[in-house]
Write a structure and sequence with these properties.
By secondary structure, the chain is of the alpha/beta class. It has 14 helices and 19 strands. The strands form four sheets. The chain has a seven-stranded mixed β-sheet, sandwiched between helices. Strands 8-2-1-12-19-18 form a six-stranded mixed β-sheet. Helix 2 (51-59) runs parallel beside helix 12 (310-327) and helix 9 (246-257) runs antiparallel to helix 10 (264-270). It is globular.
Length: 398
């Protein structure tokens, strides 16, 4: 296979798609990105990039841009609803992992990647909703609902949890599974809440109480992001996710968490644009590829945000797949090797995300007491070591 003659069609312009295009360019392989939605700035919630994700971005020379746009997370800080510290462990350990962990808005990360894509003259097309895929005569045709189409040698589905490419590959499922959680989240300006200490801004704050879980951290020089898990019996409809009364939503969240120690109450009160997200995951697919079509990122293995690894997994996928397409003798060999190398790791992380989500559920007084003692003992003793298998993962590009 002469990889430098390949033309790669990338479906999805979020995180994994642009990152893959940049690594392919680094490998001398051409690609074009097609995103179903229009380009919009400041859309989406916040996310955590773990040290393993920052190491991938360092290979693209983008780690400093991300660090400057987000907040370096020094600690993971576990508290109860009264504000008492249960555990506090180091999160960014540069002497061990080389890069730190960073909390950042999804919009900021996407902008950094897309700006670099444009800087390197990689085509990216918006408002291109995939309608059909045809594999024949050694090539792939992708058709879009505006009547246009494109032709390439391989097609990569980096189009997220609702992947149209996955529906083409696996029309009968498995389908994304609802975790029973709706996440409410938002951002506020740091200056709005004077009582938050810098040490809290520089930490992932995990607050556990009888009424459930609340989290917050910095998300840039002047912003704080927050999130929480609401247990529900069924996922919200599109209308319920986007068309709801902001004040009623704040009051509902306040009923759960308004009696938690500061600054939780103040964060809820100051938030003026609360977002809702259904939390789905993809626990295991029988295969990630067929012929010359491959899935990466959430399209292949969506992980609950409770794992804190979704974006980092997509970045790892992008780097690994580009490397294999450069090095392997055939596309088939590159795809099969990719799946064999990546699947065990990401499916373990998906299960970890499910477990962490269950730990954050509403509990009675006795269960909350047990949870607090478990955190005091196990997180303080094993927390840093427990993160090592996640963070200490590096792909050698050369």
């Amino acid at each position: 296979m002469d990889s430098k003659k390949l033309k790669v069609i990338i479906i999805g312009g979020g995180i994994g798609g642009p990152a893959l295009a940049l690594f392919l360019k680094k490998a001398g392989i051409s690609s074009v990105i097609y995103e179903s939605r229009p380009y919009e700035e400041n859309v989406g919630g916040g996310l955590g990039l773990a040290p393993n994700g920052l190491n991938v971005l360092a290979s693209l020379g983008l780690n400093e841009d991300v660090i400057n746009a987000g907040t370096v997370i020094k600690h993971a800080w576990f508290k109860n609803s009264r504000g008492k510290t249960l555990a506090k462990i180091r999160y960014s350990i540069p002497e061990k992992y080389e890069q730190p962990g960073v909390a950042i808005s999804r919009a900021s990360l996407n902008k950094i990647l897309v700006d670099e894509v444009k800087k390197q003259d990689i085509p990216i097309n918006y408002n291109k909703k995939l309608k059909d895929i045809i594999q024949q005569n050694g090539e792939i045709k992708a058709y879009f609902d505006d009547g246009s189409f494109t032709i390439g040698d391989i097609l990569i589905g980096a189009d997220g949890i609702g992947s149209a490419v996955r529906k083409y590959l696996l029309p009968n499922g498995p389908f994304p599974a609802f975790t029973g959680i709706v996440s409410s989240a938002g951002f506020i300006k740091t200056e709005q809440i004077k009582i938050i200490k810098q040490d809290e801004i520089d930490s992932l704050n995990f607050i556990y109480g009888k009424n459930g879980f609340f989290g917050f951290s910095g998300a840039g020089s002047d912003e704080i992001m927050w999130w929480t898990n609401i247990k529900v019996t069924h996922p919200y409809s599109r209308a319920e996710l986007t068309d709801f009364d902001q004040q009623n939503e704040k009051e509902s969240i306040f009923k759960f968490y308004g009696n938690y120690a500061s600054p939780v109450k103040e964060i809820i009160e100051k938030s003026d644009n609360v977002m809702r997200f259904n939390v789905f995951d993809v626990q295991s697919l029988p295969n990630w590829f067929s012929g010359k079509i491959m899935l990466i990122g959430d399209a292949a293995h969506a992980v609950s945000p409770n794992a804190g690894q979704g974006a980092s997994m997509a970045l790892e996928d992008a780097m690994m797949l580009a490397k294999l397409l450069r090095n392997e003798k055939t596309v088939a060999s590159a795809f099969s090797t990719f799946e064999a190398l990546r699947k065990p790791r990401v499916e373990k992380i998906v299960q970890e995300g499910r477990r962490r989500g269950e730990d954050k559920e509403i509990s009675g007084t006795f269960k909350q007491l047990i949870r607090e003692w478990m955190i005091r003992i196990f997180v303080n003793i094993f927390g840093v070591k427990g993160n090592a298998w996640l963070f200490d993962y590096k792909i050698d590009w050369d």
